[in-house]
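Design a sequence for this backbone.
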């Protein structure tokens, strides 16, 4: 757990400074946050160390504010600045990204053989043109031309799919309109 938390301490301290938390309080808040995390029996539920660390620090800061007799009105607003949205994509975004990746893979797979092979080495494996040319026994110009050709074919296919989806949506709207009448 420590390797997922400790690297974010500097960022947490900087955020607390921007919130105008006194320097001696920053040290206490960070230590209390580490203490809170050290008391956890199990850390397997922690998916994002950074977000968990900031959330724990926010809780510590809120506890401190509650304990204080005099609460500055802007303290509560500053606590919200410490809150971090979970940066992990939600399940819907993960599924969408996976589908998009499969779509791009299918488009790459549909390229002509030599074009596909060069495009994959250049864009997916990120190999230098010189190395690809040497491996395939072609000039660097051929590698560049095939990479550009592959990209153009993929972009053209994406545009065509977009047009088809737009046409299908338009047809569905027309059908829905006819059914309502």
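Sequence:
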């Amino acid at each position: 757990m420590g390797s997922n938390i400790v690297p974010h301490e500097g960022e947490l301290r900087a955020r607390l400074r921007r919130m105008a938390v006194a320097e001696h309080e920053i040290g206490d808040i960070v230590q209390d946050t580490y203490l809170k995390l050290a008391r956890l029996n199990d850390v397997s539920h922690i998916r994002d160390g950074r977000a968990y660390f900031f959330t724990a620090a926010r809780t510590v800061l809120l506890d401190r504010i509650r304990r204080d007799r005099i609460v500055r009105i802007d303290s509560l607003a500053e606590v919200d600045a410490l809150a971090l949205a979970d940066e992990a994509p939600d399940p819907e975004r993960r599924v969408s990204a996976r589908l998009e990746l499969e779509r791009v893979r299918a488009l790459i797979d549909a390229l002509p053989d030599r074009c596909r092979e060069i495009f994959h080495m250049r864009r997916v494996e990120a190999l230098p043109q010189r190395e690809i040319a040497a491996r395939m026994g072609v000039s660097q110009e051929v590698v560049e031309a095939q990479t550009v050709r592959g990209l153009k074919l993929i972009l053209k296919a994406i545009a065509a799919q977009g047009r088809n989806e737009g046409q299908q949506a338009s047809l569905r709207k027309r059908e829905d309109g006819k059914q309502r009448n």
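The mean pLDDT is 80.
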